[in-house]
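INFO  loader      accepted 1 record
INFO  loader      residues=351
INFO  predictor   begin
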Amino acid sequence: MGSMNIYDVARLAGVSTATVSRVINHSGKVSEESRRKVENVIAREGYIPNAFAHSLNTKKSATIGIICPVISDVNHANPVSELSRLLRREGFEVLLINTESNMESKRAFFVSLINRQVDAAIVIGCNTTQREKEDFQYAAEHIPVFIINGRIDGENIYCCLCNEAAIAREAVRLLCQSGHEKVLYLYDSQTYSGVKKLAGYREGMRAYSASEPIEIMLDSERSSFYGAAEIVRQSQGKLNFDAVFTADDSLAAGAMKALTAMGRSETPVIGFNNTILGACTSPELTSIDNHLCQQCSIVISTLRSVLHGEKPTQCLTLEGTFCWRESFPRPEEIPENGENAEGWSSFVTKT
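INFO  predictor   done
INFO  writer      dumping tokens
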């Protein structure tokens, strides 16, 4: 049969259109005989329900929009992949939008998703501008909005993030109390996450170092790997640093490449986000894990609750953890009071 519709299915199965609808949507009571008749017709005729028409009737499209700033960035690609996997497991289709920028207004992208009648939007990260806040609040008037590793407060906005300021401060403490107080910090983003990491670095330097902060922001238009390598090479004879801390692993890998070429492969380096790059460098890179995959799982769980009409906690914060490797081996614990002690700070999910 050519263009088949629900009326054709009902006629061939000898049931009402309401029965066909209940079978397709798994809603309401249907006798086993009627269900079997409808399913047999659907299988025999290859009938595919009109998802758009269904969305008009139910106001639900079973589609979730994902807004990703830079899909080529491993820090964004990994959570997009994990979110897509989890959403499809839940029975949702995914509509992906790549904005190609961290700082561009998201209003047009939200409008596009709303017009396509998605059930919700998930955004990878956010920035701290007033325009960004207004864009999210506009979207939240129409659909639930969920943020991975960022925070904007507002009705119908739900966030999951890592306390990156605290773990960045801890990284500086460990470097300083291991004898490396001149910590160079490299970053290339002023997103919510980037701002928090930088704040943690500055707090750590104020608290634990006798040296002034040494921080350099790279041009976001350039490759973070090659940009960091160039910055470190150019610093020779100009910047006096004895450790490197970076806002992501790509920056750290670039810095390590330059340090090795300069004969400084023993300089401690700590990255951020704990990506696969950490295992690809030589020596392998110590990095901070902000638990993006766990954040994705939490967001999907929260999304499920919201779509079921529940009112879950609007913002959940995870604590970061260190993934110790060769570029800065796990040191002996030096508590803030200066005394040796067993164990490490516990970084667990806040409730």
